[in-house]
Amino acid sequence: QLYRDARECLTLLSQRLGSQKFFFGDSPASLDALVFSRLAPLLKAKLPNGKLQQHLRSLQNLCNHCAAILSLYFPWDGGGLAPRVAGADGGEGEEDPHKRRNQVLSVLAALAAMLGYAILSGIVSIQRAGTAPTGRQPLTMDEGEEEE
């Protein structure tokens, strides 16, 4: 029932918007902001069940509405909500061709930062082999412990 209600709501919003760019004329109003705040995540999120998302993508005027608001208020990310176009092989194209590289570099940078913090704060200390810190004796095993 909830899915049917949501689907009907999207259809009614699409009918109300019609061929206009925004709901009340040539500039966005509070209703446009409210509708965008609900539709943009639905268009962008990867959902386990994409039936409602597919229905929304079939309503091209609502997709165009979101794209218009994105390009108006978020020009650096305006094309992010357009439905993905399948590649020549039939699969979806990679969002970012360097995504894997960026993930690996992010992990390496985080590890380097954590290691640097640990060394500078004294949590970890690096010493030469065979030398003990001042005032401390190296750990050794007694002869009796070696036999056990």
Keywords for this structure?
6 helices, 55% helix, 0% strand, 148 residues, mainly alpha
What would you call the shape? elongated
- Low-pLDDT ranges: 82-93
Quaternary class: single chain
Strands, total number: 0
Alpha-beta classification: mainly alpha
Measured by DSSP, the beta-strand proportion falls in: under 5%
- What is the radius of gyration? 29 Å
Give the rounded overall mean pLDDT: 79
Number of helices: 6
| Helix share, percent | 40-55%
Question: What is the H/E string?
Answer: HHHHHH
Major beta sheet summary: none
- N/C terminus separation: 71 Å
Keywords: Membrane, Transmembrane, Transmembrane helix
Domain Metaxin glutathione S-transferase: 6-69
InterPro entries: Glutathione-S-Trfase_C_sf, Metaxin_GST, Mito_Protein_Transport_Metaxin
Transmembrane segments: 104-126
Task: Write up what this structure looks like.
It is built from six helices and no strands. The protein is mainly α. It has a domain of 74 residues. Helix 2 crosses helix 4. The longest helix has 23 residues.
What is the gist of this entry?
This protein is mainly alpha-helical and 148 residues long. The chain contains six helices and no strands.
Topology of helices and strands:
Layout: H1 2-17, H2 30-44, H3 51-58, H4 60-73, H5 99-121, H6 143-147
